[in-house]
Amino acid sequence: MYGHFEKALYDSLVEKREKVLVWRAPDTYFLTVYDSILIEYSSIDTRTKLEDRRGPLGLFLDSEESAILGDSSEVLKSLVLKRLMEWHRIAAWSCMAAYHGSYESVARELRFFVEDSVQSLYADQQSPTDTIDEKVKWLETNRLRRTHLIDTVDIVLDLKAKLKCIYKELCDYVHPSVELIKRVIENKRIYFEYKEDWFDKMFEFHTRVFDLVLALVMFRFPKAIKRFLEYQNTDELEKDGYKDTIAMIEFQMINTK
Fold it and tell me: pLDDT tens digits for 175-205?
């Protein structure tokens, strides 16, 4: 069923191997920033224990690590941190959808990703000392949506403007616009079909969204930046198109001196 698609995909991407590998980069970056946050926002004694437990694939917050941090740990009350692993899965899923020609699915996942990340930061800002359960309950009656949410959250204006821009662009691929309907009608096959221009557009969206969300996480956890840079050098971030993350790192380092 996927033979035609797979051949077209292979033929088109065989010369773009290095570019395609960038789609996997968020996996590494999000695991690295996750470790940096857990370690930097814990006590000195706890930090040493977590560093000792950090393996080649990073930390995974299991029951033993939760016990090390303790129930009262402020970092475990962060909805941004709690959602970080879900965003890691979205990175992998959106890549898979693109590889299989389900381009609208990529746009839907990425739009959800933008809104969810901003919503999580908003809850952290409005209820900083509440537990995760309390924040979720608070969101039931205080949830904001779409660009109004981005307008309300307290972040630097440049980052806010770029989040609104990418959100609006993704909406064009999610809502049944005339252009989208035309493009869907053009696909007369009953199975997924590789479209190079669509693939390239989703690749661009993917890089921009993960760059902005990683910058958002840096804004929420500025103390983790120094350790993150020990684990991940900026040359790799620059190569993979994470310019807003680098800008946010520089902004935070200047403003926390």
Answer: 655 565 666 666 655 456 677 788 888 888 9
Domain boundaries, the chain: 3-255
Give the residue from 161, 153, 96, 89 showing the smallest Cα distance to 120. 153
Q: How many CB atoms lie within 10 A of CB 157?
A: 7
Identify which of 183, 218, 187, 216 has the alpha carbon closest to the alpha carbon of residue 201: 183
CA 41 vs CA 73, 88, 119, 217: distances in Å: 9, 20, 22, 14
- Residue 181: both structure tokens together: 């309907």
Which of these, 227, 231, 234, lies nearest to 250 by C-alpha position?
234
Phi/psi class of residue 95: alpha, beta or left (left: φ > 0; alpha: ψ in -120 to 50)? Answer: alpha
Which positions ≥6 away from 220 have C-beta within 8 Å?
Answer: 78, 80, 121, 124
Backbone angles phi, psi at 165, to 5 degrees: -65, -50
Q: pLDDT tens across 155-182, in order?
A: 888 899 999 999 999 988 876 555 656 6
**Burial class of 224 by CB neighbour count within 10 A (0 to 12, 13 to 18, 19+):** buried
Please tell me the predicted confidence (pLDDT) of residue 118: 92
- The β-bridge partners of 55 are 58
β-strand partners of 58: 55
Could you give the C-alpha distances from 126 to 130, 185, 209, in angstroms and in order? Answer: 9, 45, 24
pLDDT digits (tens, 9 = 90+) for 89-99: 888 788 778 87
